[in-house]
Structure formats: structure tokens, C-alpha cells
Amino acid sequence: MTKAVIINGTNSRNSRVTAIHEKVENYLKAQGIAVHTNYVHELPAEDLIKANFASEAIVSENKQVEEADIIVLLTPIYKASYTGILKTYLDLLPQKALLGKTILPIAVGGSIGHLLALEYALKPVLAVLGATTIAHSVYIVDKQIIRLEDGSFAIEEEAINRLEVELKQFQQIVSI
Q1: How far is CA 172 from the centre of its chain?
Q2: Dist. CA 105–CA 149, nearest whole Å
Q3: pLDDT for residue 72
Q4: 104-119: average pLDDT
Q5: How far apart (Å, rounded) are the C-alpha atoms in residues 164 and 140?
Q6: Coil/strand/helix, residue 64
Q7: Alpha carbons 117 and 82: distance in angstroms, whole number
Q8: Element containing residue 164 per DSSP (H, E)
Q9: pLDDT mean over 84-102
């Protein structure tokens, strides 16, 4: 069975990024893919900050990545880059942890002006980690994700359509 790991680099489960996360997770599960989620902000902060490679939580998450075929990285864009939370975890992955994996980077940012943050900030790090199959990035402007009164989110149709197009192309790369 194909296995995916979603690495969520936001600082809260109550984030617009989570709305996109849920869409991606539901899509993958509908394709019969086993999905594991790593909410990086829920890993022990001391282990992340002190680069504790021996941490049980870090070892466990790295094992999930090792066993995965697909890695989806989700991040908000802050100050024209992906989050520091995500970077602290990526720093704890083994040198070639992404070798042989198919990678899908997705970001939510405040303006279209940060569209290339994934291309120039995140993708080079993924390449250093061994990633050779990186799908087209998906960038969604945060105003396209509306927080509803009940705390849930609605995603504008244009953003959903772009996400679905990339997920379908990603599916062809992975041969699901």
C-alpha cells in the first residue's frame, strides 16, 4: 500500500493551512493511500530547538518519513519564507531522507508577492535532503480561505480548483 506523510509546518491546528491539509488528506485517502500526519508544532520544542536526533518523538516521525512513498509539506509563509518550525524539523531528518520520495510542497501566504517562496526557500532544502521528484508547488493566498463563525473554514472555488489540478498531476507522477 502506498503511504504518505503530511508534514504540517504551521504553529496551530486552528490555521488556514489546516483547511488545505484536510483537503489533501481526504484526497489521498480517497485514492487508497495510508496517511500519517506530523504536526511539527506538537513535537517536543526542546527536541526541535536543541536538535535532539535521539528524541523518541523525532525518531518516530523520521521512521514515518523513511517508510513513506509520498511527502506533502504544508506551511504558511511568514516574512517571505516557510516557517522556522518546519525548518527545525527538516534539520532533524537524515541527510538523504527524501531520496526516492515524491514531494508536494504547499503554502498559504498573505499575498501573491510571496508566491516564489517555495521555489527559492524550500525546494533547495528538499533537494539537499535527496528529493529528486518534487511536484509543482501549490500556493494559496490566505484570503481565499475564509474562517467561518463555527471555527471551520471555507475555501474559495478557484483555490480548490488549482489544488485539485495539482493533486491530479501529482497522482500521475506517483502512479497511484
Answers
A1: 19
A2: 29
A3: 98
A4: 92
A5: 12
A6: helix
A7: 7
A8: helix 157-174
A9: 97
pLDDT in tens, 62-80: 999 999 999 999 999 999 9
CB-based burial label for 63 (10 Å; 0-12, 13-18, 19+): exposed
Round to whole Å and give the CA distance between 161 and 39: 25
Work out the number of other CB atoms within 10 angstroms of the CB of residue 99.
12
> Which 8-state DSSP code applies to residue 75?
E
Q: Which of 13, 153, 33 is nearest to 104 (CA)?
A: 33
Please give the single-letter amino acid code of residue 1.
M
Q: Which residues pair with 6 in a beta bridge?
A: 37, 72
Contact 135/126 with Cβ under 8 angstroms? no
Question: Counting Cβ atoms within 10 Å, is residue 139 exposed (0-12), middle (13-18) or buried (19+)?
Answer: buried
Verdict on whether the full-model pTM lies above 0.90 = yes
